[in-house]
């Protein structure tokens, strides 16, 4: 098979979305209620990494970047994730706190997009979560200067063993460069696949009275 055949095959890849629709009368007034319901269904369906979300940030030149991060908490104040504060995404968010999240629940023919701005979590929140992690993950947080260039994987493995020995007694201390963010939600979009490409899309936009809901064309 040549390159032209491969491209033609890709162009014709498609399938029907038949798992059901989403109707205006089914929508709660608060988007987090629908998000919680959908996330619960993703967990019940045993999707791999149901809390995985694509996190998009923009650098000082306007270049967007994306990466997969795990959602660790959500409540009416927003959605929470943790990271190295020296990472590329952290530098982006320091200069531009606007952020986009995408939950790609393909097996359920659903996706949820979130737009908002971030604020750093308090030291108490970060410390509480850090010490709830497996000990090896706590040590792993110390090992990597995230997004920096390294010569080989062996550098990381050697550093991990060194720090595992160093921290073999007592608690692993919280690194000064490790923290988290809360996304203060401005809008959420819910997408449910539909037959004949007639997908259902609903957009929640925060306003002075709560949330405004619009149906979007697929």
UniProtKB/TrEMBL annotation:
Domain Pyridoxine 5'-phosphate oxidase dimerisation C-terminal: 178-218
Domain Pyridoxamine 5'-phosphate oxidase N-terminal: 41-165
Assigned EC number: 1.4.3.5
Cofactor: FMN
Top EC class for this record: oxidoreductase
Protein name: Pyridoxine/pyridoxamine 5'-phosphate oxidase
Self-association state and partner proteins as the record states: Homodimer.
Catalytic reaction equation(s): pyridoxine 5'-phosphate + O2 = pyridoxal 5'-phosphate + H2O2; pyridoxamine 5'-phosphate + O2 + H2O = pyridoxal 5'-phosphate + H2O2 + NH4(+)
Protein family membership: Belongs to the pyridoxamine 5'-phosphate oxidase family.
Residue positions binding substrate: 14-17, 72, 129, 133, 137, 197-199
InterPro entries reported in the protein's UniProt record: Pyridox_Oxase (IPR000659), Pyridox_Oxase_CS (IPR019740), Pyridox_Oxase_N (IPR011576), Pyridoxamine_oxidase_dimer_C (IPR019576), Split_barrel_FMN-bd (IPR012349)
Listed GO biological process terms: pyridoxine biosynthetic process
Pfam families found in the cross-reference section: PNP_phzG_C, PNPOx_N
Example of a GO MF term: FMN binding
Binding-site residues, FMN: 67-72, 82-83, 88-89, 111, 146-147, 191, 201
Keywords noted in UniProt: Flavoprotein, FMN, Oxidoreductase, Pyridoxine biosynthesis
Cofactor note: Binds 1 FMN per subunit.
Pathway recorded for this protein: Cofactor metabolism; pyridoxal 5'-phosphate salvage; pyridoxal 5'-phosphate from pyridoxine 5'-phosphate: step 1/1; Cofactor metabolism; pyridoxal 5'-phosphate salvage; pyridoxal 5'-phosphate from pyridoxamine 5'-phosphate: step 1/1
Function as written in the Swiss-Prot or TrEMBL entry: Catalyzes the oxidation of either pyridoxine 5'-phosphate (PNP) or pyridoxamine 5'-phosphate (PMP) into pyridoxal 5'-phosphate (PLP).
């Amino acid at each position: 098979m040549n390159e032209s055949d491969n491209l033609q095959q890709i162009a014709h890849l498609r399938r029907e979305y038949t798992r059901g629709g989403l109707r205006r009368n089914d929508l709660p007034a608060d988007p987090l209620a629908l998000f919680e319901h959908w996330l619960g269904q993703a967990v019940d369906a045993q999707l791999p990494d149901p809390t995985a979300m694509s996190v998009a940030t923009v650098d000082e030149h306007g270049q967007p970047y994306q990466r997969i991060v795990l959602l660790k908490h959500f409540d009416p104040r927003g959605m929470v994730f943790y990271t190295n504060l020296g990472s590329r995404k952290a530098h982006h968010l320091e200069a531009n706190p606007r952020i986009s999240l995408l939950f790609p629940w393909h097996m359920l023919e659903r996706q949820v997009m979130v737009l908002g701005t971030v604020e750093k979590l308090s030291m108490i929140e970060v410390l509480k979560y850090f010490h709830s992690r497996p000990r090896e993950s706590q040590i792993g947080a110390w090992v990597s200067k995230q997004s920096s260039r390294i010569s080989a994987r062996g550098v990381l493995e050697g550093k991990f063993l060194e720090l595992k020995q160093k921290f073999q007694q007592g608690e692993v201390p919280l690194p000064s460069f490790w923290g988290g963010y809360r996304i203060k939600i401005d809008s959420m979009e819910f997408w449910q696949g539909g037959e004949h490409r007639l997908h259902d899309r609903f957009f929640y936009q925060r306003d002075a009275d709560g949330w405004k809901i619009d149906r979007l064309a697929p």
